[in-house]
TrEMBL record:
The keyword Endoplasmic reticulum does not apply. It is found in: Cell membrane. It comes from Acetobacterium fimetarium. Signal peptide: none annotated. Its main location: membrane. Keywords: Cell membrane, Membrane, Transmembrane, Transmembrane helix. The chain crosses the membrane at residues 7-27, 39-60, 72-96, 140-157. Pfam families: ArsP_1 (PF03773). It is a multi-pass membrane protein. InterPro entries: DUF318. Belongs to the UPF0718 family. This is Permease.
Length: 177
């Protein structure tokens, strides 16, 4: 019964898509084509990310992660979070399994949120493209605003979450691993 609950959204969406296929064949075909393309795109990105996560999990000791990304990591944890998020490859949904590994290894929640924030807004190829198409001034303004925005969001979230909420996040990350 638990498996049925887990996949009920998928089953409902599949039913809606099949209904579209019956009532509006062209739209239904388009829905299935786009869905297939999305799934294939994810399957092309996720395996390399999972391999890298596995290597990170095996190669980096928990003590090392706590030292550089833990509660007392200070500016090193912040800079490392920005660096890891900026050089990451793949779409944003690839950041969440990475975040889970970092949480399991004892990283500070704010530092993990910095990684996710930098992953979504500050990737190096994105910055280079912006520079070429929008100009240096625009790129620098947006980059500086992103730094402050990511920091404000990461530390605000850490402060707003109760210790119980944070424990639940760490427990969920451990459960997913």
């Amino acid at each position: 019964m638990k498996q049925v609950k887990r996949y009920r959204f998928f089953v409902v969406m599949l039913g809606i898509a099949l209904g579209m296929l019956l009532f509006n064949h062209d739209l239904g075909v388009k829905v299935f084509t786009l869905s297939t393309d999305s799934v294939l795109g994810m399957l092309g990105v996720l395996p390399p990310i999972f391999i890298l996560i596995g290597l990170l999990d095996v190669w980096v000791k928990k003590e090392t992660m706590v030292k550089y990304m833990g509660k007392d990591s200070g500016i090193i944890g912040i800079l490392l979070g920005f660096f890891l998020g900026s050089v990451a490859a793949g779409p944003l949904y690839g950041a969440f399994p990475v975040a889970g590994v970092f949480l399991n290894k004892g990283s500070r929640l704010a530092n993990v949120l910095i990684i996710v924030g930098a992953w979504s807004t500050m990737k190096i190829p994105q910055i280079l493209f912006e520079w070429a198409s929008m100009g240096l001034k625009f790129t620098l303004i947006r980059f500086v605003m992103d730094i402050f925005g990511v920091l404000i969001i990461a530390y605000s979230m850490e402060k707003l979450l109760t210790p119980k909420d944070q424990q639940e996040i760490y427990a969920l990350a451990k459960k997913m691993n």
